[in-house]
Design brief:
Largest sheet: 5 strands, antiparallel
Helix content: 10-25%
Strand content: 35-45%
Radius of gyration: 22 Å
Distance between the termini: 34 Å
Order of helices and strands: EEEEEEEEHEEEEEEHE
Strand order of the largest sheet: 1-2-3-8-7
Shape: elongated
Length: 205
Amino acid sequence: SSDLSSGINAEWPLRPGMKLISVSDKLSIPSGCKVKVSKRIVTVDGPRGHLVKSFKHLQCELIPGKKDILIRVWFPNRKAVACVNTIKSHIENMFTGVIQGYKYKMKSVYAHFPININIINDNTLVEVHNFLGEKFVRRVNLLPGVTCKSTGTKDEIMLEGNDIENVSRSAALIQQSTTVRNKDIRKFLDGVYVSEKTNIVQVEE
């Protein structure tokens, strides 16, 4: 076997022109994390909780070891080779989520009418008031495992959670709720935007 340019291990055929036999990569499991793989469903347990992700839509092989996970695809085409790194990134994000968590900070931007944000329903529902002076109240239900808090800074909120997809999608839902319609968006820049992406627990390197 030899390495591809991206660092993935590839098993080449005996003769040129034949199909690639297999492509694999290993992902080390950080200390404090437990990984379980059952029928391409990966469960990761860590200090902050546990996450579950299904990779059933991909034709891949996931083999957990004591200290690492082997990701392998047999007889791959070009798209399947790319899947190896994609799966690796998803599982790495799960590790980061259960150890450090994810925090997205969002800021209200307005030219004239101050945007008021209310956080209710156990920090899982965000209400946006007075956007462009409108009386209509925009309500955004956050995705499972995501909570919203005020940072203490004026016009700033933060979203926290373990699953990077749910945190980022919740931030996107809030941003999209304040989309300006029927006006020149170069001039009307009001809205709630992501200002910073960071982790809840900072790990010293």
